[in-house]
Give the backbone structure.
Amino acid sequence: MNVAAEVWLALGTSTIYEASKLPCALDPRLRPAWSGAEACAPAYPVGCLPGDNLALHTAVELAPAGSILVVDGGGLLVGYWGEVLTRAAQRQGIAGLVIDGGVRDIDSLEMLGFPVFARGVSMLGTYKAGVGTLGGPTDVGGVVVAAGDLVVADRDGVICLPRADVGRVLVEAKARQVKEAAMIEAIRAGAHTLDLYGWRQLLTETEQESTDLVSGETSDQGAP
């Protein structure tokens, strides 16, 4: 893993997502296939025909080394990916897999250290009938992913940042991380989150509105 990827992963997907102000979070039901899986690399989008993984066999050969395959599998829980494809992908230098669909051979994926994020696990087999789509913009988990977009994935989920926003988001995510670290220190020193976020006045106003509402209802009930 390169230094840049380590920087993004140290920030974490939640911090990056909040700092980005972008609709960049893939469906939260796409989860790590094994505990501790994490990845950060440019995306190579793939669209599989339903229940067909021929596109994945092709993508492993065509995708640039260092990229993550980001795959629309239609959300189907079939075994689109397993140990054989993992070993082929590692030989080609593929950095990981995100798939809206099922995977299998989980113990082998973990043993090989290959990061996979999927909708679920399924031993069911697949077809080989059509190539699908390779390298073009693809909707995966509710986000349109283009080749070269930055994918960051950890146990909080998966995000995909458009290439044009990567520099800005990195700066803002680092600033947010510093701000949150200062806030945690303040909490350790005894501060309350209502004060740190400036929400105490909002709470007071809400309580006053509730009091006024109850008073109004009581007055109405006592009216002739």
Remarks:
- The CA atoms of residues 98 and 117 lie 5 Å apart.
- Residues 3-166 form a domain with the Glucose Oxidase; domain 1 fold (CATH 3.50.30.40).
